[in-house]
Please model this.
Amino acid sequence: MTELAYTEPEAKVIAGAKEDWELVIGLEVHAQIASKAKLFSGASTRFGAEPNSNVAFVDAAMPGMLPVINEYCVEQAVRTGLGLNAKINLFSRFDRKNYFYPDLPQGYQISQLYHPIVGEGEILVDMEPGVARKVRVERIHIEQDAGKSVHDMDPEMSFVDLNRTGVGLMEIVSFPDIRGPEEAAEYVRKIRQILRYLGTCDGNMQEGSMRADVNVSVCRPGAYERFRESGDFKHLGTRCEIKNMNSMRFIQQAIDYEAKRQIAILEDGGSINQETRLYDPVKGETRSMRSKEEAHDYRYFPCPDLLPLEIKQSWVDKIKANLPELPDAKKARFVQDFGMTEYDAGVLTADVANAAYFEAVAKGRDGKQAANWVINELFGRLNKKGYSIDKSPISASQLGGIIDLIAKGDISGKIAKELFEIVWLEGGIPADIVKARGMLQVTDTGAIEAAVDEVMAANPDKVAAAKEKPSMAGWFVGQVMKATQGKANPKVVNEIIRKKLG
Ligand code: ADP
Ligand code: MG
Model:
């Protein structure tokens, strides 16, 4: 596997009123495991179902009901760990995290504190071609999601919808290696990208399939490097945790706000309270929600209802052998095999569906030309319409058909764009459309020569001028193309005109 070379960006320095500061950010990403059934029950995970229609007795915490682990969910967590270059722990265990929420009827959440299923890993967070930050992942654990309280349906009462209760989540915890708001957003984007490639989470942030808790602290320049050398968190500043962010834009805004807030307090001689905060996108500020609980507040203890999870290395190896090609590898391969720029390869691999589309178009064709059509014509058009690739009116085989017609010399690039337009609006098989509508390129030199002669006969003055000044030949090419409705092969037209002008 080839890898692209990169250098790490500088940490963002923020000038306070008195001193310079740097940001230190660590993220906890909650990703809903793509599984049809919940983590400990057979109830469906379908989004948008009738409230409380996907609830098994164990999800509702009926007395005596016991959780049964969903092996598929465990496999997805292992896949995710492997995709994040992380250590897979063959022994892991579930713990009860005790707290009360109306939408968590058990009164505790089954999670993994002491023995998570996945240990340390690392991912590259791309900032621009050739520049990437390596962010270490501390752990991934599996846990159950809570339900949803509904406060806006009745003036007097609150309701609860337990459909989401017990759905499997992966919590992906990073080290505090992220050094700026853009990096934090890109980190989430990269996690989402990898998970979508793996198929372990659909990454749908609007539906809440992915959300992040953002831990932010500030420190003086050099402090982070001391932390990296020693591994000792005491070199870092006190952090605040901004909960439940589900938009890259808000993540950046919240970090910007939080950095300013913390710096102002510190420069004023104050200290930061470790607390949980909420971001208000309307006001553009974070607000204190509660002082931060410590692990001991949750009275964690091993879940007595579940055996420890012991998995076999051979099973992990099998999962590893079946991993799909991941974004970094695909990008490097596109650069190498198709000779495209890292930027273009980044665009084409940004989403697993886009990459699959491109590969279908490029198969057996000129990769650079395929890339050009997919990025400039198709993505450009889709973006304008706000469509994702699965809503594309032009399929990969239709676009491939257009490219084939160009390669065969049946149509010019200009006609190809018209053809693209027709296929976009009306559908159909490109080769058939070209025949039916008389769009085939004329390469017949006799016919082209006749058209050239006609133009020259009508413009004797221009012929005389062009004989003096060969750069004027272009004017004739334009005229002939016009006369043939763009169907003449421009290369042949050019050759004939130059010959005739001597
Ligand atoms: P908790 O479970 O209380 O949220 P963790 O130890 O699991 O605490 O850490 C949560 C996140 O906070 C991790 O992503 C970690 O990298 C990050 N973090 C820890 N210390 C700091 C700090 N000083 N500044 C910013 N982020 C931090
Ligand atoms: Mg946390």
Summary: Residues 24-28, 173-176, 215-217, 233, 236-237, 239, 241 surround adenosine-5'-diphosphate (ligand 1) (CB under 6 Å).
